[in-house]
Fold this sequence. Notes:
Elements: H1 2-57, E1 58-61, E2 64-67, H2 69-75, H3 79-97, H4 103-120, H5 124-127, H6 130-153, H7 159-182, H8 185-212, H9 220-249
Antiparallel strand pairs: 1-2
Amino acid sequence: MSDYNSQDLRARAAEARGQAGVDIDQGLRSYMLGVYNYMAGALVITGLAAYALFSAAFVESAQGLQLTSLGTSIYNSPIQYVLMFAPLAFVLVLSFGINKLSASATQMLFWAFSAIMGLSLSYIFAVYQLGSITQVFLITAIAFGGLSLYGYTTKRDLSAMGAFMVMGLIGIIVASLVNLFLQSSALQFAISVIGVLVFAGLTAWDTQKIKSMYNAAEDSATRTKKSVMGALTLYLDFINMFLFLLRLFGDRR
Length: 253
């Protein structure tokens, strides 16, 4: 009888562990789906905001694109620098203030950030052909999807690669600052190639890192904030990879 009871207890314990594993797996999928949904929503808002400002700030003429009165007031004034640096301010507020922000405030700031980022990126429609932007965006989406899937499914620890990618990112920033003075097309090409590789690696690493942050015991507010911050990280990886690819393969007007 004691052997039977022991076997029965072991079977029930194994069943409980299996059920717990299923619950965690379902919770993880829901958490990651939330991250990707936030990111996708932010990309839609960014695209709409960018094209809306471009349409209001530029007009086609026989001489090509011309600035409207709104465009002149933005791009020929300090407002252009406000649009350029405003997204960074949002990222800093979200990154350093996340513990003090409520879940709803985090969401609102994230959506506002994606809209401001769109306004700051409106210039790409004036520089590149619309068809070229669409094509590069699709290429970026396919590459991002594959890299993020790899980061989610791989059993390999990508921490070492992530640290190397961060070093590469610092190198890109330094090289870009130097090239502001040199204006070297060869250096710009090298920066773009390395930039694509760096953000490709960061996409896989960040996905794995976001996955590892999942905690089934967390309350909904904490999970929402984690999802938003994870979406912000992957959004920035996507946007930067897209911009570097656009510089490499985009058809200019």
